Amino acid sequence: MTEFFATKNRIAMNFTKLPFSKQNQIDEGPVRTIDSSSLARPFDPPKPVLIVSLVFALIAAIIGGRYAFGAIDGILHGAQRDAATVETNINRGVSYDLPIMENYISLDDATIVQTFADAGYQTYNMLGEGEEGVDVMKIPSDVTLADAALVYAKGVSSMDAVTASKYLVGSWRFTVSHTNGTEMKVRYCDLAAENAQDAVQHAWQSEGWADNGNVTITAEGVDEIGNTYREGTIETESGTHSWRISVCDLDGVYSISGLPSTAQYVGIRMN
């Protein structure tokens, strides 16, 4: 125990003398340092490595430039290309082949659907499970039924202008209801119309009523809710039936930006 304290005291005494006396400093010998001259030299990678690095950098720059150009081009010119595509779709020459209402007014539902099939129309059944009557969508002749079914299932309002101009031109929806007698309707979008009157006249002519002596016009103009209309009667083998053509601006029914501002929504009814 005495040795421990003696040793401890000796260490303490040496510690107190270190700052004031050079005699008690420990000589540790010469200090050796690492030669760092090699680290100061510039690092020059081998030429093959340098060439490969430059090639990869060039490829990265090209890819990045293409993406950047595509993004900028899409912002600056995307709307112009979409407008050109919409115009092309509208004027691509696909026929509506509107059903002649007087030819179907006396037929039963099954016969109507079969007649559409015999005529070569591609139709998509819109009836819900357990519903009666007829509710079919005729699709354009230049699109597939599978593609159209996917598009229509999302709803017309979800379409952009390019999609709408492709799937609405040449299509119509035909319904038959027997709630109060027999009422038939066909509805479609006229994207090529210049105005509402033009759309009414086109529908009138498409039904073959312009030169039909059995057709009488009883009224036309603009009704109380703003629809442009023409209505009257027609004499057929099954008797006298009333008809009406109603037209309104398409953007009042569907909000699809990019379609012509003159596009019209058309409905033809016979009962």
Automatic annotation (TrEMBL):
The chain crosses the membrane at residues 49-69. This is Teichoic acid transporter. It comes from the Bacteria. The keyword Membrane applies. The lineage of its organism: Bacteria, Bacillati, Actinomycetota, Coriobacteriia, Eggerthellales. Keywords: Membrane, Transmembrane, Transmembrane helix.
